[in-house]
Amino acid sequence: MSKTTLLILSATALLLTQAAQAAPKPCDELKAEIAAKLDEKGVKNYELAIVDSDKVGDAQVVGSCEAGTKKLTYVRK
Hints:
Elements: H1 3-22, H2 27-40, E1 46-52, E2 60-65, E3 70-76
Antiparallel strand pairs: 1-3, 2-3
């Protein structure tokens, strides 16, 4: 394989990987993943909420979903 062909294949693979990672994730799926990580670390008494991006308030944002229109917020109880 020539260097040019290898470079083109590498660039194509990189672009495909980035496109797959940039795919919007459903909010409920993201919320479940974050909750599982928090539970795994032993975090107790917290609330994760899915809110509109403009209604975050004082809560800590821990994720974004639905192409950035919604945010996942974390609040300790």
